[in-house]
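Deviations from the work plan: none for this task. Representative record:
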Amino acid sequence: MSDVLTKVVVDCSTGESQVLPLTPEEIAQREADAIAFAAAEAERQAQVDALAALKASAKAKLVAGEPLTAEEADTLVL
Amino acid sequence: MATYQKIASVSVGSGGSAQMVFSSIPATFSDLIIHVSARNTYAGIADDILLDFNGTTTNRTSRYLYGNGASTLSVSVGRGIGLQVSNTAPANLFGVGKIQITQYAGSNYKSISAFTVTENSAATAYAVATSAIWSSTAAITSIEMTPSTGTFMEHSSADLYGIKNS
């Protein structure tokens, strides 16, 4: 893969397709986007993991006949 | 009667691409539809596709409602419009999706809906419903799609359609 970052642009008025280099501003935006994605993905995964843990705990308590916390009950009640 | 008309297609060649762009979009339609098929170089299962307009990255907000077969999640994602397959998924698999932009040439804010799915021949595949908005009164004349990490891989593509109402 080329070291020069490029974008493919289609002009809808002519149908012509071009491969153009990214501008310095676009490259800087890419770097910011990658950092933002890493943070957002970590947060999403944390939410998924927390919900899975709550549901597992709620299920175990139901089976054992133990009381659920309000958070655990929220995972089961629609 | 509403009609679909294909406006343009973009595809990524060998070497990949950091962005897929539709420029000089005519203002002669009511709404726009994008069919996208994408895979990117991110070393993970899936990655966001960022959707921007007219060369700007501001005034974009989105919310995902997504599920992976084991859990569901509702999350605010800024400029994301959906998920694509990334490069730890088995070879030759791409995420696919449909994006609809209503009243794109009008002078109100632009409402956007999307549905994207990923596949990786394993348990963790995603289905994402997205509601989004571009808070700008400008007509949309170009659309930029960008992976939030890495680059689009060869054979990623998008088709742009215009809908005319009557």
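Chain A touches chain B through 32 residues (CB under 8 Å).
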